[in-house]
Every structure is written in structure tokens, then in C-alpha cells.
Write a structure and sequence with these properties.
Strand order of the largest sheet: 3-1-2-4-5-6-7-8-9
Number of strands: 9
Enzyme class: lyase
CATH topology: TIM Barrel
GO molecular function: 4 iron, 4 sulfur cluster binding; carbon-nitrogen lyase activity; magnesium ion binding; S-adenosyl-L-methionine binding
EC number: 4.3.99.3
Largest sheet: 9 strands, mixed
Order of helices and strands: HEEEHEHEEHEHEHEH
Distance between the termini: 31 Å
Number of helices: 7
Structural class: alpha/beta
Cofactor: [4Fe-4S] cluster; S-adenosyl-L-methionine; Mg(2+)
Helix content: 25-40%
Catalytic activity: 6-carboxy-5,6,7,8-tetrahydropterin + H(+) = 7-carboxy-7-carbaguanine + NH4(+)
Shape: globular
CATH class: Alpha Beta
CATH architecture: Alpha-Beta Barrel
Radius of gyration: 17 Å
Number of domains: 1
């Protein structure tokens, strides 16, 4: 159980449940192939059955870490910092992004959008999930919509979500990894018939990097 002082810091965003942080190549979406420092925040109640980072779900397993420490580590590496999870918007991202900006970092977030938007972001990748749909604040601000395709019905869900994001959001379809062969073939065919969409792949898994 957290002390009262630590809990207050977590509540205001001065500390966050840090699962892991690492410097690697962005593997998905619009910025695929570019270097970035990833900050993975623990805690998620969206509960996707195919999630490949289920160990991130329980925030209590990941120690609250001072935002100043997180920013100091990130600033040693890349100009671009990607905040992911878990579901990072479960927490107040305002202080983290403020301090990253003070250190001249570009701030990116990967989110399901299930909670209201907090923080200042240069790039918002919205990856909506049926279990807990995005909030209006994230639909309105998303730069990129990335829908995971696990079955044929997900194409319908993707089109529904595309109607809800702002007109400038770039649209991506990405195969769920365990069905990548079958779904990639369907996605390629779909994008050729619906060229407003683009294909996203988890290239970091093909490259065998984090």
C-alpha cells in the first residue's frame, strides 16, 4: 500500500507507475522505422484478450517513479519520447509532458483513448478498443487512428471509428500478431479497395527488437 505522500504525488502526476523504459525503433504506425525512447506506464482496465503486454495491467506491480527521474532518463537518448502502456491516460500526463517539453523532447502517446486526454502531445496515436471506447477529447485530437484487426468484423469497427475521429487523422489497419498471416492478406485487399486506409505492421517483432 502506498504512503499518503506517494499517493498524493501519483494523483497529481508527479509520480507514475513505471513498468519499463527503453530506447528502440518505433515499430508501428506513422513513425515506423524511426528511433524513439519508450516509456511504458503500468495500469490498464481495457482488458483486450489479445494484449501482448498483459503484465502492464496491474499498476500495483509497477513502482511509482518520480517524473523528474523518468524525464532525466529519457533525455539521455532520443529527441522523440513515446508514452505507452498499459493505458497511460489512466493517469494525469500533464506534468510528464510539461517536463519533457522543457527538455526539448517531442512527445508522442499511444492510447486506447478510454480516458480523457491530459498532457501536451506532438503526436497522438489512437488505437481504440471495443471493450472501452475512446472519449471525445481523444477522437478530436488524434493524429493517427490505428485499428487492430483480429477478425473480419473488426473492419466494420474500423470504419465506425474512422467516422468519429477528426478529418486530419491518418487511418491505419494493423493485423493482430497471432493472426498476422490471415489478417494481413485481408488488410492488404481491404486497403487496395479502400485507399483512405494504410497498412501498419508490427515491424519490431519481425526485426526481433523491443
Amino acid at each position: 500500500m502506498l504512503s499518503k505522500e506517494v499517493q498524493l504525488e501519483v494523483n497529481r502526476g508527479g509520480m507514475l507507475p513505471l513498468m519499463e523504459e527503453f530506447y528502440t525503433i518505433q515499430g508501428e504506425g506513422y513513425h515506423t522505422g524511426t528511433a524513439a525512447y519508450f516509456i511504458r506506464i503500468g495500469g490498464c482496465d481495457v482488458g483486450c484478450h489479445w494484449c501482448d503486454v498483459k503484465e502492464s495491467w496491474n499498476a500495483e506491480l509497477h513502482p511509482p517513479t518520480a517524473v523528474d527521474t523518468i524525464v532525466e532518463n529519457a533525455s539521455k537518448y532520443s529527441e522523440t519520447v513515446v508514452v505507452t502502456g498499459g493505458e497511460p491516460l489512466s493517469w494525469d500526463m500533464s506534468l510528464l509532458t510539461q517536463k519533457l517539453k522543457e527538455n526539448n523532447r517531442k512527445t508522442h502517446i499511444e492510447t486506447s483513448g478510454a480516458y480523457p486526454l491530459s498532457g501536451t502531445w506532438d503526436w497522438i496515436c489512437l488505437s481504440p478498443k471495443k471493450n472501452k471506447l475512446p472519449t471525445e477529447t481523444v477522437y478530436a485530437a488524434a493524429h493517427e487512428l490505428k485499428v487492430i484487426i483480429h477478425n473480419k468484423h473488426d473492419f466494420i469497427f474500423a470504419e465506425e471509428q474512422a467516422q468519429l475521429v477528426n478529418n486530419n487523422a491518418i487511418l491505419f489497419l494493423q493485423p493482430e500478431w497471432s493472426k498476422k498471416e490471415e489478417m494481413t492478406e485481408l488488410i492488404v485487399d481491404y486497403v487496395m479497395k479502400n485507399p483512405q486506409w494504410r497498412v501498419s505492421l508490427q515491424t519490431h517483432k519481425y526485426l526481433n527488437i523491443p
